[in-house]
From TrEMBL:
SUPFAM superfamilies: SspB-like (SSF101738). Transmembrane segments: none annotated. This is Stringent starvation protein B. Residues 123-144 are annotated as: Disordered. It comes from the Bacteria. InterPro entries: SspB, SspB-like_sf.
Amino acid sequence: MSETPPDSLIPYDEIVQEALRAVVGRVLGEVQANGGLPGQHHFYITFKTHAPGVDIPQHLTERFPDEMTIVIQHRFWDLKVRPDAFEVGLSFNQMPAKLVIPFAAVTGFVDPAVNFALQFQAQDDDEPQETATAGNDAPIAEPIEDGSNVVSVDFTRKK
């Protein structure tokens, strides 16, 4: 006899996703409060370019129509962290740009200096998409090899 668990009336998957996105906000808030990145830390942040609340220059939306990865390392300015989003200035092909990214649009956060990564389910898209890296003058870090610090939350309901 096979019993399937009942569907939850509590949205655990959304609650956990929101809590993990808050980790990104707290880390960026620490960087803002301290006036820069500590040690060798740097971040790759992937987000949906057409998610509600995302505000990036049109040429970046055209170049990255689905997802974009930005690098927060040497050349960034005016980092401002709000409860629901962050703003940052970056350079793309020697052109300065201001980006506003809601935490709900973030699909990935990586700190290669310590092999730490968080991956999020897209809130409006269940299929994984290929991610393009932005050309914002920062060196490309080595990929995480063993994934020992990767947290991937994938909630699927079995019916």
